[in-house]
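WARN retry 2 of 3 for item q-0093 after timeout on previous attempt; input resubmitted unchanged.
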Amino acid sequence: MIKFDCIGFFDNSRKTWQGYISKLVYFGSHMEISVMLSRPITADVCKTTSGFFVYFAHYECALNLCSLFDIDENIGRLSAIFDDKDAVTVACAIGKVGNLLSTPRRKRKAIISADDGEMPF
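OK item q-0093 returned
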């Protein structure tokens, strides 16, 4: 379980709370995270040529995000789907693990022996 801090401004007051990611699956091209809200939600986050894309299967909707780390912008976009506190929690969760998608995954190199003259697969 991954714990992270959330900070939100509601009714001219600052609120802080802990958020939790119960599941994180990194596929290299995208990741699936489960964020603990009143009930857990699953978000599939992937990198596209124009930014990032987040799909919420339970809600059957998706969003484009310019950056995974611009929490304020993401809160505004996520408010179309979630209430204010849940939007802050999901935006902070995406920002917490966003570094997995922002850096490219190292590629494997094929090892070819000069003696064999054939590909190893």
